[in-house]
Amino acid sequence: MRQRTTRTFLAMVIAITLVFVSDGISILYANISSVIQLKEYPISFKNATSIALSHEPDARALGQPVLVNYAGMMVYEVTLDTGRIYVDAETGRVIANTARGPISCQATAGS
C-alpha cells in the first residue's frame, strides 16, 4: 500500500511539473514576436511619456509606456490617469488619444 501511495504521489508531482513547464513554454512562445521586434527607435520611453503629457498637461502618467503594434505601426501606449495616448515610436506623433473620452485618432498618411 505504501509503495502505491509513493508512486501516485510521484506521478502527481511529475504531472504538475509538466503543466508548469508547458505553461512557461507557451508564454515564452507567445511573447517571442515582441522580443524579436525590440530595437532602437528614435523616440524613447521617456520621450513618449513627455509627448503624451504635453498633450494632456493635467494628467499623470501611470507606469512605464509599453511598445505595441497599433494599426501596423510600432507605438508607445502611454497610460495616464485620464486614459491612454499612443505615440509613434518613429516620429513622436500622437496617433490616438483616449484621454479625452472616446478614441480620437490623427489622420495617417494615405488615409
Could you walk me through the main structural features you see in this protein, from its secondary elements to its overall organization?
The chain has helices at 2-36, 45-55; strands spanning 66-70, 73-80, 83-88, 94-97, 104-105. It contains 2 helices and 5 strands. Strands 1-2-3-4-5 form a 5-stranded antiparallel sheet, covered by helices on one side. With 111 residues, it is an alpha+beta fold. Residues 107-111 have low confidence and may be disordered. It folds into 2 domains: 1-36; 45-105, Nuclear Transport Factor 2, Chain: A, CATH 3.10.450.
Short summary:
It is built from two helices and five strands, in the order ααβββββ.
Please report the first level of CATH classification, the CATH class of the largest domain.
Answer: Alpha Beta
Written as H for each helix and E for each strand, in order along the chain, the element string is HHEEEEE
* Main β sheet profile: 5 strands, antiparallel
Instruction: Please state the structural category.
Output: alpha+beta
Measured as a percent range, the helix fraction is 40-55%
The whole-angstrom Rg is 22 Å
Q: Judging from the principal axes of the Cα atoms, what is the shape?
A: elongated
Which percent range describes the beta-strand content?
A: 15-25%
CATH fold-level topology of the largest domain: Nuclear Transport Factor 2, Chain: A
Question: What is the strand arrangement across the widest sheet?
Answer: 1-2-3-4-5
Number of distinct beta strands = 5
Low-confidence stretches: 107-111
Cα distance spanning the termini: 74 Å
| Number of structural domains | 2
Number of helical segments with 4 or more residues: 2
At CATH level 2, the architecture of the largest domain is Roll
Mean pLDDT across all amino acids: 81
